[in-house]
Amino acid sequence: MIHIVFEEANKGALEKSFELDTTMAGEVVIIRDDYAVGPINNIYALEGIENRANWWKDVLTGGPFEHLVAGGFNHDHDACNAVLEKLRADEEEVLWIWAAQNKHDVSGYYWLVSQLKDFQGRIFILYLNNLPFINEKGNIFYPTSLFQIQPKEFVKAKKLARPITLSEFEIDPDEWQKLGIENKGVRLLEGGKKLAQKGDDYYDAELLNYIGHEWLKVQKVFNQFFSKAKETTGDAFLFGRVKELIRNGKIVSQGDVRNLREFELKLASEVEVPVEG
Questions:
Q1: Nearest Cα to Cα of residue 114 among 162, 195, 73, 172
Q2: Rounded to a whole number, what is the largest CA-CA distance in the chain?
């Protein structure tokens, strides 16, 4: 059995459940890229892959996340190809895709699914869509990420596993292709598996809400964004937007750009503080 998750923290949480139910034990593969942001047009062709890699380099370079550039941008393709090889080599092998109700997991699912269509009947989805679970305090909650779930709850969740249908293998890749053709950089989850798209600057107005005319450390700006914004995104992409706002003259900066606790921002003098609401 092979499991696929879409965040590092999800891998550790899922593996703990194997100790409670050995029938679930298997390799856990992580799809690491955040397909909820960035270009996805022609994403399986060399041109599209290079375009996305160059986009990430621009986002990451010159900041605290620059070290991620050295890691390369082919991990997901290599990981997926390795899974495909194992499925071809063993006709009894099955694959379980674990996805919570968030744009990151759902976008990752869309990127993945079209590459698995040759193995229909052996590919299962566990989509935790508006499903209640029990937290450590014994209260019911609705997780938005897999790592929020206790190991024993993963064991219960395995009952939700179902084969991805032939219809889904036909429709979902087409939906992903349509999103790519729209050529927008931000994807949001509207419900179920429905994704909507916005421009690259979608989060800018919300981000500017937490930047005033006095110097404020980027870490504090991000903390406010993540705790108050209705829709959030990864910190690497968010920092890329900070760089873009600086380039566009909307904010100014000082300090060590590679350290979120030392790098400071404030609105450019001619920019008004956005009005919340």
A1: 172
A2: 65
